[in-house]
Design goal:
It is a single chain. The chain is mainly alpha-helical and about 90 residues long. It is about 40% helix and about 5% strand. A two-stranded antiparallel sheet has the order 1-2. The radius of gyration is 31 Å and the shape is elongated. About 0% of the residues are buried.
């Protein structure tokens, strides 16, 4: 019957060329739209309208004196508080 569309298949059960083109066209459109949205989001974050960073005061010397030194080779601090108790 005319007006009713059935999925067209090529010989051997493969999808027709038309179905393949529609599917790849939709995938290409989705990829283009997502790329555009990502580009706009990145531009919005790096634009001139970005919020300025707050102006923090330097760390006071009394606080710096209490900061425990971190071993640069390990990348973390291990301090023995008690026997078999580490921080």
């Amino acid at each position: 019957m005319r007006g009713q569309s059935e999925p067209t298949t090529a010989p051997e059960g493969k999808p027709s060329r038309r179905d393949f083109l529609v599917t790849t066209g939709l995938a290409a459109t989705a990829a283009a739209v997502s790329t555009r949205v990502c580009a706009q989001a990145a531009a919005a974050q790096t634009g001139d309208d970005a919020l300025p960073l707050p102006d923090y005061r330097p760390v006071p010397p009394a606080v710096k004196a209490r900061i425990l030194p971190v071993d640069a080779n390990k990348g973390y601090l291990v301090k023995q508080l008690k026997p078999d108790v580490y921080l």
